[in-house]
Each structure stands twice: as structure tokens, then as C-alpha cells.
Design a protein that fits this description.
This protein has a five-stranded parallel β-sheet, with helices on both faces. The protein has helices at 49-57, 66-75, 90-102, 123-131, 145-152, 171-178, 194-205, 229-238, and strands at 33-36, 60-63, 82-84, 107-110, 135-138, 159-164, 184-189, 210-215, 223-228, 245-249. The protein is built from eight helices and ten strands. The chain is of the alpha/beta class and 252 residues long.
Amino acid sequence: METNGTEKHRSTPLSLPVRQAGFGEGSGVRPGKLYLVPTPIGNLDDMTFRAVKVLKECDIILAEDTRNSAPMLKHFGIDKKLFSHHQHNEHKAVNEIIRFLNEGKNIALISDAGTPAISDPGYLLSREAIKNEIDIECLPGATAFVPALVNSGLPNDRFVFEGFLPVKKGRQTRLKELALEKRTMIIYESPHRLLKSLDEFIEYFGEDRQASVSRELTKMYEETVRGTLNEIKHHFVEGTVKGEFVICVAGI
């Protein structure tokens, strides 16, 4: 599942191939394309043929954490040089990436799991590519919140995706706003904060509010618990709190 970026990443500086003379703006070279490529959130069988094709054919792959992505790429026979691109270096690296796109390089961005820019790096690079009139193509594919929502049994004709809520500053304000939300709410949460978040949801939304909590989506121990917030809390107090969580909460 998409992560909140709090994990430690290997600090590998972006050091792309040396530019060739004559490349760049005004040289007549057609700009490359930026591909946003979803990767499996747990089950490698969810990788698409098209994603494999793009990753094999692109010039450069940007990965949220190269240590996590390398085994997955090896599994699919993708032998490409990886460069780290995560929330701690994306501001510093974005101009260099745009420069290489302008020089005709096709670049693919992947996250540790799921779709880039969904609670993961990708927005900043996409925004800058658009500003520079560089083509962007986002492939359809895995993301955690869609199966969690569809599987929740809650209304899914209208919903709001909140991702990870603020940990400290602004959290109470956001919860007060969400207490009045009419649409189904989708929230990501880490295992060490799950029970505390459920307590807060009970406080702000009411213990009888219908909800669903999914964990380990697409993996061997996938689990979805449905019921009131109070019922779900008691399930996890007595059960397993492991893996990444997607919480769906009914609106008012």
C-alpha cells in the first residue's frame, strides 16, 4: 500500500547520465515522456503487462526506495538503472529530471507500492512536467483505496480520499470538518496509530458510525472488518494490528 513517507529511505543522490552535447531546448530534440507506473501493493500477480513493457523500454526509472523496488523489477526481468526519488530529495532533484526529459529521455516513476502521487511522491514532478509542456502518461493499476472502498459495503457513488491525516498540527481541525462530511471517507493509517485513530473517530464521529477497516490488501493475510467504529475497535484491541490499513467511514 502507499505509505506516508515516514520510513527511512536510502539516501542515493540523483546522478543521471552525462548530457550529450547539442541536447536541450532549441536543439530540435523531441522531449521525452514521464510515465507514472503503478506497482503491486502486495501481490506481484497484479502487475500489468503494460507496466512491465513501459519499465523495460524507458531510459530511466525513478523509485521511491531502490531497495524495495529492485527485487520486484528483477522478478519481471527489468534490468534498468534505478535512482531514488522520494519526499526527502524530490525538490532538489526535480529540475535535473525535467532537464533530462527535455533532452529526450523517457522516465518512469514508481513508488514502493501502488500508484505514484497517491500518498506518495509524484505530484511535484508531475506539476513541473506540465509547466514545461512535457507529456505525462499515468498507467492504470494498483492502489489500495479502491478495493478497500468497493469491499467496504459503504456507499461508493460519492467519496472523499483523505490519505494520511495530519499527525499533530491540524489534526483536530480536520477531524471536526470530517465529522460533518456526507460522503464516505477513506483514510490511510499505520499499524502503530490505528487504535488511537479509531478512538479519535469514535470521539468525533460517534461509536455507532458504520465503517470498514482493511489491512494487508492483496496479501496472504488480507482482512476486512466491517461494523460500527466501536465494534471495529474491539476487534483490533483483541486481534492483530499488523500491516498497512485503509479505513473507510460512512458519511453522516
